[in-house]
Amino acid sequence: MNFEEKTIKRQEIFKGHIFTVAVDDVELPNGLGQAKRELIFHKGAVCILAITPEEKIILVKQYRKAIERLSIEIPAGKLEVGEAGSEEEAALRELEEETGYTSSKLTLLHDFYSAIGFCNERLRLYLADKLVKVENPRPKDEDEVIQLLEVSLEEAVSLIESGDICDAKTIMAIQYLQIIRK
Question: Which amino acids are annotated catalytic?
């Protein structure tokens, strides 16, 4: 069976610094007619499951306007211009900017998409468990207001259970850690 939807026409609705929004007219497979698809095209992002030498998970607490509430997440950030293909370097940059740590080794845990029904945002999730405090870390982004938390795996699971952690990438990272620590 053919599953591919062929694009007939694309209308770009918005082009921003982080993503582009478009509406595609598509031909459905197997002669089923046409449909519209509202799409978001994203440059990609990296996220880091950062574990301190004391076996604490470093989390970032920040306000997320899209959900109008505080969120507790693993360190993460979008790929900057020119970083495509250099995701590990981007992950180290984000780790240092957000936490003040770096790592001699990153391990790619997962390469996944955040919301494939409408968005092509591709994330790379790295494990950083050889953390070293940076003496003069890179500054945070100018518009970033964050608080660092260092929690045990058990505390992180409790934050998921309470709903304080509601971010998919963070839940995935913590569940990964649960699996490998069994």
Answer: 142
